[in-house]
Amino acid sequence: EPEVTQTPSHQVTQMGQEVILRCVPISNHLYFYWYRQILGQKVEFLVSFYNNEISEKSEIFDDQFSVERPDGSNFTLKIRSTKLEDSAMYFCASTPGGRNTEAFFGQGTRLTVV
Amino acid sequence: GEDVEQSLFLSVREGDSSVINCTYTDSSSTYLYWYKQEPGAGLQLLTYIFSNMDMKQDQRLTVLLNKKDKHLSLRIADTQTGDSAIYFCAEKRKGYSTLTFGKGTMLLVSP
Asked: What average pLDDT does the segment A28-35 reach?
């Protein structure tokens, strides 16, 4: 069964460093998303991406965040100058298309900023 | 605004039925979802229901939707220890492609 894959599963970084979280969405999907879950809190939407551009973003997705689809398969989230409060589980998701289909999530990358 | 609320914890014995409840506030929700998260793992889509339905059954899972009260429930029949996990309710609002999640309900199944 096709699935969304994320790498790495766990990343530890020093405060102020840049990190890139990687995702390979399901191959025929058109919409891609990043969500995050701070420990003990809700899963929160960060950004959605369609047709090589951001289609929606939340208040959390400020200038320190960026997304990119560098090739036909990867979808990345870059966090510049990480802060302690960026420590969270980051989930990538993809949907086949349109607005009324289910989202498939990856296993997540646990980011720990020290 | 929109919010999705769930009770935080449910404990049941193996073999019993579990009912996890969720309330939402946005009447424009089109789809409502249940995701399962096992310890250290990602979000697994269990089932979803379209807002014009009031019930959906899938093997041991039954989803009930009361649109008037904006109340969604997930019933797990014959609960097993492997069902122990956090269950997230999520809604998709009309015109948006993103999901709004609740905080999750931790289900603990004891032998």
From this structure: 93
